[in-house]
Amino acid sequence: MLYVIVNLFCVAAIIGLDQLIKWWAVEVLQPAGSMPLIPHVVELYFTYNQGMAFSMLSGRQLLLVVVTGIMLIGVAYWLFFRCRNNLLMQISLILVLGGGIGNFIDRVLNGQVVDYINLLFMKFAIFNFADICLCVGAGLWALSIILEEYHGASETRRKEN
Questions:
Q1: Contact partners, residue 121, CB within 8 Å, separation at least 6
Q2: What is the value of pTM for the model shown?
Q3: How far is Cα 102 from Cα 131, in angstroms, rounded to an integer?
Q4: Rounded CA gap, 76 and 12, in Å?
Q5: Which of 90, 128, 132, 134 has its CA 20 to 30 A from that of 49?
Q6: 115 in catalytic set
């Protein structure tokens, strides 16, 4: 039970922080348009994204909501029922679920996602905290799968010898 409570608390904390930052962006950053965070490196730049990463599927809100909803249910299932005893996978799924729900809330309530982080030193899509959680979580998830496979193969070799 503690496992479930800790996971729910962590996911809720990510969602809460994401929604708080997006609220701030709408209230403070949108009227200003942009603000330097680290001069010539990173700026806070308010924009709405009607698609997903790099504005892909822009304007296809129903498809994005349905597919995202299905994916989030799958991630939640994996987090709560399939990844016990694997801390790296647990952390990765918490990040993916929290970030995914954060953007899902925007998409369902507003039909678009609030983005506000602009990397000035490279041409890159403007993104948000939830996107960072999703990307870091996906990377950690991939790493946890690779490590699990590696340890499984090592265990098999050890048993054969």
A1: 40, 41
A2: 0.89
A3: 9
A4: 13
A5: 90
A6: yes
Q: What are the residues whose beta carbons fall under 8 Å from the beta carbon of 21, sequence distance 6 or more? A: 116, 128, 129
Residue among 49, 115, 133, 137 flagged as catalytic: 115
As a residue count, the chain comes to 161
CB environment 15-48: b (16+ within 10 A), e (fewer)? beebbebbeebeeebeeeeeeeeeeeeebbbbbe
Contact 47, 116 (CB under 8 A): yes
User: Tokens for 30?
Assistant: 């949108």
Contact between 95 and 83 under an 8 Å Cβ cutoff? The reply is no
Q: pLDDT per residue over 90-141, tens digit each?
A: 999 999 999 999 999 999 999 899 999 999 988 888 999 999 999 999 999 9
Q: How far apart, in whole angstroms, are the C-alpha atoms of residue 32 and residue 18?
A: 20
Start-end of H helices in 46-128: 61-81, 87-110
